[in-house]
Amino acid sequence: MTRAARLLLGLTTLLPSVAFASLPDLISLGPRSAAMAGTGIAVADDWEATYQNPAGLSASSKKLSIGFVYGGYRLRIDDQPISLSNPAGVQIGASVPLPLGGVLADRIGIGLGLYLPAGVVNRVSVPYPEVPRAVLLDSRTEVVSVLVGMGVRLPFGLRIGGGVLALAALVGDIIIRPDGTGRITTISEEQLTVDYAPILGIRWSSPSDRIQLGLTYRGASRSSYLLRLHTELGDAIPLGLPLISFAGIAQYDPHQLAAEAALHVSSSLTLIAQLGWKKWSDYRYPIEKATADSPALPEPGFHDTVVPRVSMEYQAPTTDAVRVMLRGGYFFDWTPTPQVQPQDDAKSLLDASRHVLTVGLGLSLRKSVPLDIDVFGQAHLLSPDGRLSGQLFVGGATLGVRL
User: For a tag on the chain, would you pick the N or C end, based on fewer CB atoms within 10 A?
Assistant: First the structure.
C-alpha cells in the first residue's frame, strides 16, 4: 500500500458516532425544568425560559446560575452491551429585567443559557453505515448549546417572547499534496461556525394567576459538519481522485410545537400538563454522499411524534428564612423510527421509546444569603421491544445567586 493510500485510509478513521439532538431536547435546560419532566412553557421565569418559552423572561429577576450535569448510559443492541459517551457538562444561566422607565417599566427581560460539554466543543464521528447505533442517543450531548432570548409583557395577562438556539458547527478542508522534497503532506484548515434555530413563545395568565397557559415553537436546529478532502498529488499517484466530502448532521432537533397548562391548586401546589409535537418526518439520513458519483443514500422513514408530559411542584412547610420546593414528573418520548426497518443501510439507525421519570429539590435561602440550590435526577427507561434497550440515568445540581 502506498503512503498516499495509507493516508487516505487513515483520514477515513479520523471521524470515529454521529450525534443527534441537543442536551436541552434530551434532558431540558436548567434544574427546575429537568426535575419537572421538561415542562416550564407556562411557568419558567428565569434563564430556563430561554429554551422553555422566552415570553417568561418578561417576569424575570436578576439571577446568575452555574451548575453541572452528569449521567450514564446502560444500553444494549441485540442484547450486547454498547459503550457511549456519558453526558457531562456545565450549565450557565443569567436573566435580568431591563431597567426601562415609563410604559416599558418592568415589561422587558432578557436571558442567556449555556451548555458546555466537558472536553469538547463539537464532536463529530462517522461510523460505517452498516454498523447499528443508537442514533438519537449517541453523543447527543457533546455539542455546545447557546440560547438567548427576550420577553415582553403586554396588557390582559399576555406575554410574548423570542430567541435563538445556537449550535456549534464545523467546516474545513484537508489538502493532500507533495512538498518540495517529494514527500506527501497534508494541510488541514477547520473552522467552527454556528447554526441558529428560532424559539418563539406566548403566555397568558388569568387575573388571579391561578391558571397559566403557554405555547412555544422551536425551529429545526442543526449542527452540521463539512470537511472536504482535496488531492493535489500530481505525479505522485498517476490516478485522478475526486473531491471527497465528509459531510452530514452532527446534532439535529426537529421542528417542535408544544402547549402547556399550569394550575396553581394552592399557594403551595402547582400541577402542569404539556403536549408537544416533533416533526421527525423531515429527518434525513445523517451522512451525505462522499462523492458526486456515490450511490444514493437510504431514507430513514422517520415519522412525527407526540410527547405528553406531566409534572408537579410543591412548596413544603418552611420558615421565612428557607423555602423548600419538591418537584417531580413523567414524560413519554415516542421513538420516531419506523416499526419495521427498511432492508438497507437505514436499518442501522436504532432508537426506542423512552419512559422518563424525574425528581428534584429546590432550596432557596431568603434572607441575608440570596442563594438558590437546585438538584434533579432523571431515569430514562427504554422500551425493551426492539433491538435497542437499556437505561439512561442523569442528574445535576445548580447554584444560583439572586442579584
Answer: N
Neighbours of 207 (CB within 10 A): 8
The residue ranges of the chain whose pLDDT is under 50 are 1-20, 341-345
CA 270 to chain CA centroid, Å, is 26
- Give strand pairing partners of 247: 226
**pLDDT for position 6:** 41
Half-sphere exposure of 59 (CA within 13 A, CB side): 19
| pLDDT score, position 361 | 97
Q: Whole-model pTM?
A: 0.85
Query: How big is the chain by its Cα radius of gyration, in Å?
Result: 24
From residue 238, alpha-carbon distances to 178, 232, 235, 298 in Å are 13, 11, 6, 33
232 grid coordinates: 493535489
Residues 6+ apart with CB under 8 A from 56: 40, 43, 44, 45, 46, 49, 151, 159, 161, 201, 203, 214
